[in-house]
Inverse folding.
């Protein structure tokens, strides 16, 4: 089942008016925060994971593995909460420890599929998500910078290719800056669209990995819970209307599909 589009990333603005809506700016904040927060979480989660692997080789330090697990879970919780910038926080569900003893506690925590997904998102998916977010932000910020170039073009250095006789020497003139700003104005809506698509993709990946897996039988259970021929509600009362007497003077109720 496809997930609905995040409310804060949904906009009714046309392509031309997209940069003036709030959606691309919220998307930029969501992606930019990942460059900082995601990098810190990647470093902490990687250190905790490697530390847990090393500590597992020593019997005395086995209890410290639980600390590593909780650190990684805490990092995942931060990322789930960061989704509130553009959507609702991502829900979570971890396996509960049902057996007493430290070995059972460690086994349950480390073998929890939710913990495995946390490690996959925080560590393995960080490089591709970082490249994806960085590309969209560079395009967006580059378009904004070129759009405002007429305001600060005199501050551009005049060495190398930026010299007056260099390849981009025309940027030191007001007509050249205005021409580039006009081109950026045309490309800015497409940069905003790229920003929105990237933010939605990033959020979709985060939700798919960090949220609990859905019940594949949820739809079938819903059908069984609703009144009808397939209802699984026990002890249902017959609501059929008695029919006309048959040849042997007996009457019967119409079949409602429920147990009598």
């Amino acid at each position: 089942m496809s997930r609905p589009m995040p409310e804060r990333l949904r906009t009714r603005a046309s392509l031309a008016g997209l940069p003036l809506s709030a959606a691309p700016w919220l998307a930029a904040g969501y992606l930019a925060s990942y460059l900082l927060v995601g990098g810190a979480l990647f470093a902490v989660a990687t250190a905790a994971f490697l530390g847990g692997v090393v500590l597992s080789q020593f019997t005395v330090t086995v209890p410290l593995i639980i600390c590593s697990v909780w650190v990684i879970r805490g990092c995942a919780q931060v990322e789930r909460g960061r989704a509130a910038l553009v959507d609702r926080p991502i829900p979570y569900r971890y396996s509960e420890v049902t057996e007493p003893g430290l070995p059972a506690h460690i086994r349950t925590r480390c073998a929890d599929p939710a913990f495995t997904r946390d490690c996959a998102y925080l560590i393995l998916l960080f490089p591709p998500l970082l490249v994806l977010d960085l590309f969209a932000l560079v395009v967006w910020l580059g378009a904004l910078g070129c759009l405002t170039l007429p305001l600060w073009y005199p501050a551009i250095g005049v060495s190398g290719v930026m010299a007056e006789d260099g390849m981009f020497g025309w940027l030191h003139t007001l007509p050249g800056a205005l021409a580039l700003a006009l081109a950026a104005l045309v490309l800015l809506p497409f940069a905003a669209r790229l920003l929105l698509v990237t933010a939605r993709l990033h959020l979709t990946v985060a939700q798919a990995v960090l949220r609990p897996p859905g019940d594949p039988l949820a739809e079938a259970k819903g059908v069984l819970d609703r009144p009808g021929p397939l209802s699984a509600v026990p002890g249902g009362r017959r609501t059929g209307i008695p029919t006309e007497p048959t040849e042997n003077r007996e009457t019967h109720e119409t079949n409602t599909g429920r147990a009598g």
